[in-house]
Amino acid sequence: MKKHLLLSIFSFLFVVNCNAQVIFTDTISVNTESITANKKLPLVEDGPIKNVIFIIGDGTGLAQIYSGQMHLVGKRGLLHVQTLPVTGLVKTYSADSYITDSASGATAYSCGVKTDNGMIGQLPDGRTCKTILEMAEERGLSTGLVATSTVTHATPASYAAHVPSRGMETEIAAQFLTSGTDVILGGGTELFLPEADGGRRDDGRNLVEEFKSAGFDYVTNARELDVSTSDQVLGLFSPGGMP
Length: 243
Description:
It is built from eight helices and four strands; from the N terminus they run H-H-H-H-E-H-H-E-H-E-H-E. By secondary structure, it is an alpha/beta fold. The protein has a four-stranded parallel beta sheet. Residues 1-25 and 30-35 have low confidence and may be disordered.
């Protein structure tokens, strides 16, 4: 982005220089009023925190947010995320690469450590790291994972599973059963079903039935989710990632 910005500035200066002898007689009016349609939210007062919602827009950076602003609300507006009172920046390299992937990136968020690309909830030497979701469970808090991808995708998986490779999605699904996570919603039905039932599991396990035996409501559409009154819900809404 910096390269493109510098090129844009250079191009602008070049055009101005080429037209330096043009005399402008018109005056340009500048609106000095507030140019934002929304206002920044205030900081909350210190006190007990009731809920923590960790939202990850996979692959999203400042360039994507600004592009979204221009497309959806224009230069005078703000996206909801831009109204938050505090903005921070992180270095996104992983332990073994200048360019991170979803696994090491999400593990950095969930555990607070750098790891190798592809690793889920583990350090480069294979040791597991405790995630913020697991810390919440130790404090008796309810936890959940919601994804538009498969629920076993590297990003959500990094909060509730520990495997050396993000490709181990059937193992991740099995670990979810004993992870203590109360609500799991997203795509990936085939990762919970055996091959005999049209799934991708070669171990013969039917994790949907195992979740139900463990006390989970199993839902497959919005209506079933709306009427569920259980504190433990497994919602799988498509065979793979959600369309």
